[in-house]
Amino acid sequence: MITGKNYIGNQLKASGSITHKTINPKLNIENSTPFFEATTNEIEEAVQLASSAFKSYRKVSGERRAEFLNAIADEILALDTELIEAYMSESGLPEGRAIGERGRTIFQLRSFADLVSNEDWRENTVDTAIPDRAPLPKEDLRKTLIPLGPVVVFAASNFPLAFSTAGGDTASALASGCPVIVKAHAMHSGTAELVASAIIKAAEKTGMPNGVFSNIMGRGRTVGAALVKHSKVKAVGFTGSIAGGRALFDLAAQRDEPIPVFAEMGSVNPVIVTPDAISARSEQLSTTYAGSITLGTGQFCTNPGLLLTVDGENTKTFINDLATKTIAIDPQCMLHPNIKDGFVKNGADVTAQNGVELIGKIEGDIAANYAASQITSVSGTDFLANPKMHQEVFGPFSLVVRSKDEDQLLEIINGLEGQLTGTIIAEDNDNINMENLVDALQDRVGRIIFNGVPTGVEVCPSMQHGGPYPASTDSRFTAVGTDSIKRWVRPFSYQSFPNGLLPKGLKH
Amino acid sequence: MITGKNYIGNQLKASGSITHKTINPKLNIENSTPFFEATTNEIEEAVQLASSAFKSYRKVSGERRAEFLNAIADEILALDTELIEAYMSESGLPEGRAIGERGRTIFQLRSFADLVSNEDWRENTVDTAIPDRAPLPKEDLRKTLIPLGPVVVFAASNFPLAFSTAGGDTASALASGCPVIVKAHAMHSGTAELVASAIIKAAEKTGMPNGVFSNIMGRGRTVGAALVKHSKVKAVGFTGSIAGGRALFDLAAQRDEPIPVFAEMGSVNPVIVTPDAISARSEQLSTTYAGSITLGTGQFCTNPGLLLTVDGENTKTFINDLATKTIAIDPQCMLHPNIKDGFVKNGADVTAQNGVELIGKIEGDIAANYAASQITSVSGTDFLANPKMHQEVFGPFSLVVRSKDEDQLLEIINGLEGQLTGTIIAEDNDNINMENLVDALQDRVGRIIFNGVPTGVEVCPSMQHGGPYPASTDSRFTAVGTDSIKRWVRPFSYQSFPNGLLPKGLKH
Fold first, then answer.
1. pTM, entire model
2. Which of A106, B75, B231, B462 lies at a C-alpha separation of 20 to 30 Å from B10?
3. Candidates 3.40.50.1360, 3.40.50.2000, 3.30.230.10, 3.40.605.10; correct CATH number of A6-265+472-501?
4. Any catalytic annotation for residue A85?
5. Complex ipTM more than 0.90, yes or no
6. Is the Cβ pair A428, B469 closer than 8 Å?
7. Nearest alpha carbon to residue B380 among B357, B355, B402, B413
8. Yes or no: domain B6-125+138-265+472-501 corresponds to CATH 1.25.40.10
9. Is A301 a catalytic residue?
């Protein structure tokens, strides 16, 4: 049941007076439950509980943390249709997506349970003593990874389950031994509370300390800022806009004790389509990319917002085909009215720039909060002259750049900001200088895809989801996949330690 | 030969007019060579060269980078007595230390050469495709580590070789594939230039691109700030004071594109000596610690500046013995007059605090720039009441805190700032609650030592040299040992890549 209250550790609390409601974007009406913004006292209590829970939770065995994570997965499944309905009513996303995303969330939780059920993930190393080494003896040294402390996770607007309350950030942090305080996304507070209730149930059933998890609500930045500035908070995870992520990064960097912020932010995910690829399979490519651009109403962080081509007769046909096919896909609902407003405004901004052409247009009225997909095009020279066009338009929007030649294509890639992904669409024996292309792209992205689409982020050890700023605030870590646990730990060495005091996995 | 000029890539340049000289602290006179501060143009040129060198250097094979690192080691050895004499004349440190530190520097270079001579260090992972997976096929994903780009290294004052021009930061960054620009420490500019000449010779002999290394000089903060703020610099390494490291961290965090700063800063390296240990072996402990406190004139980042005991009759005897033995060791020269001034001032600051007692005192005059070792003592209650006493006094100084009981001892540990190391001196069947002690200490340090001394930092895979802020700006990385290479790299994924385009080590 959705109560509208915060989970301060195991307790539902709502002593404040500021409330907000979520919105059903499909119906364009407010949902009924008022959600209570956490008070300063409630925030303080959640952090103190987390800090005190850390003392015992960091010593809970991997097997028991795995039990906890698996119990969270079970409890989320037990929420059944109540969760799916809340998800749909707060996101405008269809049932299939809700069920799929729940599956991903469950899979992530169970993957981290598997990961920490033994000690292999800790990268343990042992250097044994050499007592007779000259000129000085070598001491016994053993290194492992230990958790940082309480972590604050900001839920994403575009993944109410998989990157939110019990999403990848929370699952990886809890797996590592860090308590988690989630700042729920205001626009899916009900979904958040339901998932939080599942986590709390799981914590109680598996005997985890009170404070290992809290769910804090609030609109605006006050609550989040208070959490990030609290001296007992030791790291932050965030998925969202560049402005939001940078604001948190700045707050964290300005603390007396700076803490790491892992913000996964904007990306236009450039896709390079070579002239040879267009000559060989323009039809197939335009179909595939019309699908990728509109997938999930274009609301994926890996949405292909920028297609880089070399100009030519075939290129124009490709662009026109792409536009025709993209527009032909039925408009879909966006996550909430603010997202729709941003999409319209930012799309219009780019389209208003010198040389940008809107290719085709959906005719007739579009329902409130539904998005009219847009394919735009510009010459490479105009694109290079105007950094405004590099900006992400969050939604089903793509700008196709027509470079005059291969050199200009490389110049454009070199001038891009950091990106989560880069994609190369090319033929087996493509005439383009592939080495130059890969080198240029590698410098700007975290993952490079060959003849595929950037959408679809596999949860596996080899996934890198993160890239040079502003794709992420810290390109040295991934937000997806089992390696994302590395964000919440630090190496720790034991020197000349008695066997009895060494942790499991480091004993002689 | 020492020319006083900067290495801007392979070229010696000195177009500026600001100069400084180094000081022979033992003789308390200036050395003769004037060193030219790099001009804005020279800094710009060094960064542009590094950025352009990165394009080819990052693709140089591991075997060839290993050749380069080994050649640097060879060329440093070839500098022979010229280097040892410059080192001694600029640091006041004795010949044995100079030779020892050169050995450590060579060892570090060769360790990183070994590390990167194959691809194992890249933590490569492979997830092969599952084309028939339902509901969606799994794509082939392969992950590796790639270098970040040009790195700026700030040389340490206390290790003119091992943490300076060709020290651990430079060796690990060059090993990873990042070009390096060193900001030389003003007080050992001659030593720096000699080592820089060895690196440049090695780069030329092994065919590395011009710009893979530069050595920039200057006094004050202007030159360093310009380097850290430059958009083409991608990471920073620093060893020194909290004020200096934090200033660089702040500059880097305020950039349009924030970059990581690995600053290894202050630490008082608390040593807990249990009552049982004092009862059992007070004599041996006071001898060992008098040696550790005065080692290298107390100018090690792991110097034991804080001894935590529980009060009692044996404790007083131990403290008096420790003071007597420490004072009995001949005063040694400090690195330069500023360090000596800081030592005197900061030592006096702590000694002037309420309840702090100076135990014994060296009688008679001390030569200029030589340090009079100091052992001070204070009650746990007075220590807790006054954060001023937590500060590091860089030099042969230690504050012995007498807690009233075990609880107060734990309270003191919990209230400490982050530290590089913590040490426990205890008996095999000590009556102290060891679990509580280890837990409290682990939360505050990066390395914990049992029945040893914190001084002596082994270069090996299991070493963690770094701890919670302000010991380091980023506790998730080590500044010593082969894992320090991880500071300069980021993970990178290849999805569905043709075999021919995959790097060595990721091919099918």
1. 0.96
2. B231
3. 3.40.605.10
4. no
5. yes
6. no
7. B402
8. no
9. yes
